[in-house]
Write a structure and sequence with these properties.
The protein is of the alpha/beta class and 318 residues long. The protein has eleven helices and 14 strands. The protein has a six-stranded mixed β-sheet, with helices on both faces. A four-stranded antiparallel β-sheet has the order 2-1-4-5, with helices on one face. Strand 4 and strand 5 form a beta hairpin. Bound molecules: adenosine-5'-triphosphate and magnesium ion.
């Protein structure tokens, strides 16, 4: 596809008999953010390492920015940036020094390396850090500097492997802002994350990866719709009545999830208004008191748990 920045077809990678990637397919359109969402060990980092030519696939076709990652690895490297799960900054140096060093490592001349460092410090709001050593940076500042470093060469395609893991909410928001501003500049971003909210916030399209395969692919909205549209949440006054409530609600029993701590049960609904009035009436007739009843869209969490089968919060009360 001409407008694809990344094409992956049937990628496989095995480590000592274990499939890290097990026939993974993926297409990422130029100028978009693609979220790769998956639990620990799903194969996210393996995918990023293959896409960034650090690792060869055992099988499959993998192209980045129009070049094959195995046969044209050098051409790919010229066009990509990588923010690894574990970053490679020099702790003793300041932000500017780190960026200049990266520039020199990428064969920019001294003058261009300095100019590029200034530009990126400005862009990531790090200009005020002066000579302060990176080891004194906050988590958010450090990650923004990582991001700046990965952009030294103005890559066409940028890989971010769990860019906000370990950051507090403020640091996370700072990184999100930076990623959003990148895409405005036309960069294609592939980002891995374990945070559903992050994929929801940043990504145009999301694929869910489990055990080295894509188990679902779409926009946040289509993925949410895929597990049955809206849901109804009911919070009871008395957790002891959750079982009784599940039994009498006019919804499919096997799709109800129960959270005893929050005295909450949640179920997919087909007709919003019919479900709402039906639930209110059924509870009233049974003398079960509800504290709150709400209709809502499913969260990506629910989509993920449903599609990967790792949902262990199913109908214990039923
Ligand atoms: N170099 C390696 N040698 C052996 N096994 C590996 C290697 N790299 C990855 N694996 C295995 O491959 C599987 C996928 O690992 P990968 O690091 O790609 O997962 P991940 O989705 O990035 O997980 P996390 O969210 O923890 O970063 C895991 O079972 C992992 O143990
Ligand atoms: Mg990883």
């Amino acid at each position: 596809m001409a407008d694809a920045a990344i094409t992956v077809e049937g990628a496989r990678k095995t480590f000592g008999g274990k499939h890290a990637l097990d026939g993974l397919d993926l297409t990422v359109t130029r100028g978009t953010v693609h979220g790769v969402l998956g639990p620990n060990g799903a194969g996210k980092t393996t995918l990023v390492r293959i896409l960034s030519t650090l690792l060869r696939p055992d099988a499959g076709r993998v192209e980045v920015a129009g070049h094959d990652v195995v046969r044209e690895a050098y051409a790919v490297r010229l066009r990509i940036g990588l923010l690894g799960q574990h970053a490679a900054l020099d702790e003793e140096l300041g932000g500017r020094q780190n960026l200049e060093l990266f520039g020199r490592l990428h064969h920019l001349g001294a003058r261009r390396a300095r100019a590029r460092a200034d530009e990126l410090l400005e862009r990531f709001e790090l200009s005020g850090t002066g000579p302060k050593a990176v080891k004194q940076y906050s988590g958010g500042m450090r990650r923004r500097l990582d991001l700046a470093a990965s952009l030294i060469t103005e890559p066409e395609v940028l890989f971010l492997d769990e860019p906000t893991t370990g950051l507090d909410p403020r640091g996370r928001a700072e990184v999100w802002d930076s990623v959003r501003s990148l895409v405005g500049g036309g960069t294609t971003v592939l980002l891995t994350t374990q945070y559903l909210e992050e994929a929801d916030q940043l990504a145009d399209r999301i694929c869910l990866v489990d055990a080295g395969r894509v188990v679902a692919d779409g926009t946040a909205d289509t993925l949410k719709a895929a597990i049955g549209g809206d849901r109804i949440d009911v919070v009871l006054r008395d957790a002891g009545q959750l079982g009784a409530a599940v039994a009498l609600l006019p919804v499919a029993k096997d799709a109800v999830t129960v959270d005893t701590d929050r005295r909450l049960l949640s179920a997919p609904v087909i007709d919003r208004m019919a479900a709402l009035t039906g639930v209110v009436r059924a509870l009233e007739e049974a003398g079960i008191e509800a504290e709150d009843i709400a209709l809502r869209r499913p969260t990506l969490d629910e989509v993920f748990l449903r599609l990967t089968g790792h949902d262990d919060r199913t109908t214990e009360a039923a």
